[in-house]
UniProtKB/TrEMBL annotation:
PANTHER family for the chain: H REPEAT-ASSOCIATED PREDICTED TRANSPOSASE, PROTEIN YBFL-RELATED
Keywords: Membrane, Transmembrane, Transmembrane helix
The name this protein goes by in its record: ISAs1 family transposase
Transmembrane stretches, start-end: 20-42
Organism: Micromonospora craniellae
Higher taxonomy: Bacteria, Bacillati, Actinomycetota, Actinomycetes, Micromonosporales
Single GO biological process annotation from the record: DNA transposition
Domain H repeat-associated protein N-terminal intervals: 2-85
């Protein structure tokens, strides 16, 4: 925690920065959803717990915590907490020549939060689909600004991992940008991205391939929650003149999803480019990579909304919205590392075991 810059004036500092940040981390791990809830959590602890957190006979007022958390550098805090989580995770083990670590990148609007000029707060995050840890997060201005934020976010990921070697970056069609593909390749990684009408030439190339002549290379079926879904993957190495209209693309991929819900069947076709050759990424691998791209939405953003009520949090001041999003990322990653599949239940358990939680964090 000592590497997080303290934004407070040196005069009048009554409580240590590490103690205040430990309170914020512990409270959100225990399910706190607002600044007020963070203060309520620490206020309700007994005195031995206060002492473990570094307090004597009093704890900081709600305004003291709030004034700090709206001024902390959210980017630095995310990097520090990410390093703490990664130190707790099991060592990375490569399980075969074709194995890759998949990092999903996606943006999220905090619907209840606003910047000082009234705009909604928009964050772009990189999510380690193996561990459930957010490796980096940057705040951007509008949806269209996700594009220039992509490379700074990659640099945060590289700062955590050391390099992108053995890493596949997956993202939605907004990030089917030639600059993104070159940025990933320059850092030693590979890139799988969906293609839609925002890249008309590439999309036309992919759609025009003779898919009816290409044999399906992989198929997955799932049944649950009243739904049947089949995903069929076709992939081909493209040898057209000049290749695909996308840097470093070695394979064209088509994934067809057929869903049956309450007797009604729908079909959706998605096209992708992949920078790994067929020898290193077979159709089953490609299907898994595309499936992992949805994890950042389902296992991170959805949980922040449903369990931590993020969209209802009307944070409006300073870095407060991004800081609290960072704390939520940390809570989700922490509980995922502990094997939790139900984050709401995990936060309730952590709240009942506050002494153990404080020992872990401090």
């Amino acid at each position: 925690m000592q590497v997080v810059p303290d934004p407070r004036d040196v005069r009048g500092r009554r409580y240590g920065l590490s103690s205040l940040l430990a309170v914020a981390v512990c409270a959100v791990l225990a399910g706190a959803c607002t600044f007020t809830a963070v203060h309520d959590w620490v206020r309700d602890l007994d005195r031995p717990a206060w002492r473990k957190l570094g307090f004597a006979d009093t704890v900081p007022a709600a305004t003291t915590l709030w004034r700090l958390l709206i001024r902390i550098d959210a980017g630095v805090l995310q990097q520090v907490l990410t390093r703490w989580l990664r130190e707790r995770s099991t060592p990375l083990q490569v399980t075969g020549r074709r194995w890759r670590l998949v990092i999903a990148i996606d943006g999220k609007v905090l619907r209840g939060a606003r910047t000082v000029d009234g705009r909604q707060v928009h964050l772009l995050a990189a999510y380690d689909t193996r561990t459930g840890i957010v490796l980096g997060q940057v705040q951007i201005e509008t949806k269209s600004k996700e594009i220039p934020a992509f490379t700074p976010l990659l640099d945060q990921v590289v700062a955590q991992l050391g390099s992108l070697r053995g890493v596949v970056i997956v993202a939605d069609a907004l990030h089917a940008q030639t600059g993104h593909a070159r940025a990933v390749a320059a850092r030693g990684g590979d890139f799988m991205v969906a293609a839609k009408a925002n890249q008309p030439r590439l999309y036309a190339q992919l759609k025009a391939l003779p898919w009816h002549e290409i044999q399906a290379g992989g198929q997955q079926r799932e049944v649950g929650h009243g739904r049947r879904e089949t995903r069929t993957v076709k992939a081909v190495t493209v040898h057209t003149d000049g290749g695909l209209a996308f840097p470093h693309a070695q394979q064209a991929v088509r994934i067809t999803r057929t869903r049956t819900i309450k007797g009604k069947t729908s079909r959706e076709t998605a096209y992708y480019t992949m920078s790994l050759p067929a020898s290193l990424a077979q159709p089953d691998d490609l299907g898994a990579f595309a499936r992992n791209e949805w994890l950042i939405e389902n296992a991170l953003h959805h949980v922040r909304d449903v369990t931590f009520r993020e969209d209802a949090h009307r944070a409006r001041t300073g870095t407060g919205p991004a800081v609290f999003a960072t704390l939520r990322n940390t809570a989700i990653g922490y509980h995922r590392l502990n094997g939790a599949t139900n984050i709401a239940r995990a936060t309730r358990t952590a709240n009942r075991r506050s002494t153990q939680l404080i020992d872990t964090v401090t």
